[in-house]
Design goal:
Structural class: alpha/beta
Order of helices and strands: EHEHEHEEHEEHEHHHHHH
Mean pLDDT: 95
Strand order of the largest sheet: 4-7-6-8-5
CATH class of the largest domain: Alpha Beta
CATH superfamily of the largest domain: Spore Coat Polysaccharide Biosynthesis Protein SpsA, Chain A
Shape: globular
Distance between the termini: 55 Å
CATH architecture of the largest domain: Alpha-Beta Complex
Length: 274
């Protein structure tokens, strides 16, 4: 894992994996609290990482470089492996597949009653080609696929508990936008950075800018039905451009016949017209 000022949650995180992990590696990106001490008390190898230039992918890769095991389980300091999930990992790895595994993450915000669920690749073979990409919103998925591996969904769960503060979240949105722009300028061919840029604009409710980014994604990935669907939702819900929205939904349906979300939007538009 990588960690910074996680003394409040780190012990719970490490407790959740103690019985299945034969080594614990914590890359500290500049903690000013007791994070390093807590990690050392658990027998973790603590590695200091210069985070002067923000690069979460590089920090995660530094952690992987320290690993001697055949498999990597990547967690954050404010996450815990669910108690009923620890026992599922051994049998899964016993299959010895060249695969990255999606874990189901339950995101518990301090200001929300209901957890939001997403899926993240956090369990994968320790191979030299499998490394994270991206300074922010870093992912390992693309390198696994490029290395001939598969991505497989599991019911292994992570519990993610975090303190949510709107002002802090918005400052982080702005911070990430600037870094993503730097990444896009450095490699204009990487459309995955645009996906995250659109999401950051959306969280800030800057919908026109999000739509413009989504339009560029569609240009770069003309066969991507999901991107076309998203562009249609921006045209319909935020720009009141029903003609373009219909064109987008119909194109998404052409690219992915039977696409249920596209069908649903088109049916709703027809009902509204009547």
């Amino acid at each position: 894992m990588i960690a910074k000022n996680e003394e409040r949650d780190l012990a719970k995180c490490l407790d959740s994996v103690r019985k299945i992990a034969h080594e614990l590696i914590v890359v500290d990106t500049g903690s000013t609290d007791a994070t390093a001490r807590v990690a050392a008390e658990y027998g973790a190898k603590v590695v200091a990482f210069d985070f002067t230039r923000v690069d979460f992918g590089a920090a995660r890769n530094a952690a992987i470089e320290q690993a001697s095991g055949r498999w990597i389980l990547m967690l954050d300091g404010d996450e815990q492996l669910a108690p009923d999930s620890a026992g599922k990992i051994g049998p899964l790895l016993g299959k010895n597949e060249n695969a990255g595994y999606f874990l189901e993450r339950h995101n518990h915000a301090s200001d929300a009653d209901v957890a939001l669920t997403d899926h993240v690749v956090r369990l994968f073979p320790n191979r030299s080609a499998y490394r994270y990409r991206g300074r922010v919103h870093e992912t390992v998925d693309a390198s696994i696929l490029a290395g001939g591996g598969r991505l497989i969904q599991t019911d292994i769960c992570i519990e993610h508990n975090f303190v949510s503060n709107r002002d802090i979240r918005r400052r982080k949105n702005h911070w990430y936008i600037e870094i993503l722009k730097e990444e896009i300028a450095a490699d204009p061919t990487d459309s995955t950075r645009l996906d995250f840029l659109a999401a950051e604009y959306h969280q800030l409710e800057r919908f026109n800018e999000a739509a413009a980014v989504m339009k560029e994604i569609v240009r770069m990935r003309p066969r991507d039905a999901r991107a076309r669907l998203f562009l249609g939702t921006y045209h319909l819900l935020y720009q009141n451009d029903r003609l373009r929205a219909r064109e987008d939904f119909e194109k998404a349906l052409e690219l992915r016949p039977g696409y249920p979300e596209a069908l649903s939007f088109l049916e709703q538009m027809d009902q509204d017209k009547n």
